[in-house]
Specification:
Blueprint: E1 23-30, E2 38-44, E3 50-57, E4 65-73, E5 76-91, E6 97-109, E7 120-127, H1 130-134, E8 139-145, E9 152-158, E10 164-168, E11 171-183, E12 188-204, H2 206-225, E13 231-238, E14 252-258, H3 280-284, H4 289-299, H5 301-312, H6 317-331, H7 343-353, H8 362-374, H9 379-388, H10 402-419, H11 422-426, H12 431-452, H13 457-466, H14 476-482
Antiparallel strand pairs: 1-2, 1-4, 2-3, 3-6, 4-5, 5-6, 6-14, 7-12, 7-13, 8-9, 10-11, 11-12, 13-14
Helix pairs in contact: 2-4, 5-6, 6-10, 6-12, 9-10, 12-13
Length: 494
């Protein structure tokens, strides 16, 4: 049995899945040229992506994109969707032949796809790290130890656990348990996992499923577990009739593979916290939690993606601190009322600046300064956020004076990375102090986001403390005590 599983970027891939074959030789044809069957090989490359190599005539026109390619190979029917021609190889030994390399966005197994916009209402997938996040298990263990011979017997039983139901506008979501066992020579290997079953109120194409649900949901699991969150398998269901679809319906399930993805490390390869910030059961008790997360992700997609990628592929401490700081600034936007400088302050700044301007382009420069002064101020909302969580996070709750010092250190460091001003960089965090600042900023982000989706900040801070997430941040207390002028703020900032 052969299955093409989800792989790489927006979906991810499970490098542990076993496939019987890595390539299939067969006949392939373009949807608009059904009479012209071409020999070709569908293969999985070393990096996990899938490609189709077609043997064509030398004189045929160049082609760069085909919406649908069909094929018969290995006793199966394939539909390749959104195909892009990457390279062309010319075989000069066999005159008149060339091979084209096509990369599909999706591969449907045993389904004749009519259009790349074909819609599906029900989809299932599994995520690396989902079992740790859902904590669904029906396995019970019973140990019996005998006095004589120090013999211990293990009795293991399993019953189907109840699924976790999550609420979200437009979707019905169930996280269900999966189970399989493999006979071994001296025993039985059992493996329990979790699967996401989702039904949408309206049909969605694969591109829409990826953008609207799968990618944001995977990012949610990544945020909670600090693991890769790779999609291991994905299937869509075509019901047999127009009746309502139940979670265990008898429709036709179609396995799909995707090349529109990015490779992430497995959760077992990532060294980090093993206790999630929160679990699926925590969100099940909060009716609006998923709506809040999806809204937050749609508001800051690039900033959240950049932050979560840091957990999977650590970079330099400077880049880590800069990426985390950018997201924290965006999260500070909820303090809208305190973002702007008051009118009197703006006018006083203009009076100081205008005499220094030259006559050339004086009016244009003055208008630009007025616009800049009317934009948001970073320091005030940042100080308010730090003050809000000062009773929750270490080291902020160690002293009431440390909050403004942290805000000043944060802004100097952020401005140094952004503008590379020598005077500002002299006041920026470096070395161990930079690592401690980055740890605290990440703690602020975790608490802020968790509180927005309805979780209790104190509980999130307790998890961070128990898992060592704030160990480096606590060192800021030492740097604060060594600071000679902790209450002196920098007057210029952007």
């Amino acid at each position: 049995m052969f299955s093409l599983y989800i792989q790489g970027g927006s979906f991810g891939r499970d490098t542990r899945c076993k496939v019987d074959r890595d390539q299939f030789l067969g006949r392939w044809w373009f949807a608009e040229q059904a009479d012209e069957k071409l020999p070709g090989i569908l293969r999985r490359r070393a990096d996990g992506t899938i490609e189709l190599e077609l043997l064509t005539k030398m004189m045929e026109e160049d082609r760069s994109y085909r919406e649908i390619i069909y094929g018969l190979a290995g006793g199966k029917f394939f539909s390749l969707c959104s195909n892009v021609s990457r390279t062309t190889k010319y075989n000069f030994a066999a005159y008149g032949e060339r091979s084209e390399i096509w990369e599909p966005s999706y591969v449907f197994e045993n389904h004749e796809l009519r259009s790349k916009d074909e819609t599906f209402r029900v989809i299932t997938f599994t995520i690396d790290g989902l079992q740790e996040w859902s904590r669904i298990s029906g396995i019970t263990k019973k140990w019996t130890q005998y006095q004589q011979g120090n013999r211990i017997e293990h009795e293991i039983s399993r019953s189907e656990p109840e699924a976790i139901t999550l609420l979200m506008n437009g979707y019905e979501i169930h996280i269900r348990s999966t189970f399989n066992s493999t006979p071994l020579r001296w025993g039985q290997e059992i493996r329990e996992g979790s699967q996401v079953w989702v039904q949408s109120n309206e049909g969605l194409s694969m591109d829409e499923w990826r953008a609207k649900f799968i990618h944001p949901f995977r990012r949610l699991v990544q945020f909670a577990t600090k693991t890769g969150g790779d999609i291991a398998a994905i299937s869509v269901e075509i019901p047999n009739d127009n009746s309502s679809i139940e979670p265990k319906g008898d429709g036709n399930w179609i396995k799909i593979s995707s090349n529109d993805a990015k490779k992430y490390p497995k959760s077992s390869d990532i060294k980090g916290i093993y206790r999630p910030l929160f679990t699926a059961s925590d969100l099940a008790a909060l009716p609006d939690s998923l709506n809040e997360w999806f809204g937050l992700y749609n508001q800051f997609p690039q900033a959240l993606d950049a932050l979560l990628d840091l957990d999977l592929a650590p970079r330099s401490m400077e880049e880590t601190c800069f990426v985390t700081s950018r997201l924290l600034e965006r999260l500070c936007e909820r303090f809208e009322s305190s973002r702007l400088l008051d009118k009197a302050t703006r006018e006083s700044i203009l009076k100081l600046v205008e005499p220094l301007l030259s006559n050339e382009n004086r009016e244009e420069i003055t208008d630009r300064i007025k616009s800049d002064l009317s934009r948001r101020s970073v320091r005030i909302p940042l100080s308010e956020m730090i003050r809000e969580w000062s009773s929750v996070l270490e080291p902020l709750k160690s002293s009431p004076e440390i909050a403004p010092w942290v805000a000043s250190l944060f802004l100097n460091t952020r401005n140094c990375f952004a503008h590379h001003d020598p005077d500002t960089c002299m006041k920026a965090a470096r070395g161990l102090e930079l690592r401690a600042l980055a740890s605290l900023v990440r703690g602020l982000v975790d608490v802020e986001i968790s509180s927005r989706i309805g979780l209790t900040p104190i509980d999130i801070a307790a998890v961070l403390d128990d898992t060592g997430g704030l160990n480096l941040a606590k060192l800021l207390t030492r740097f604060f005590e060594k600071s000679k002028k902790p209450d002196k703020d920098v007057q210029s900032f952007s």
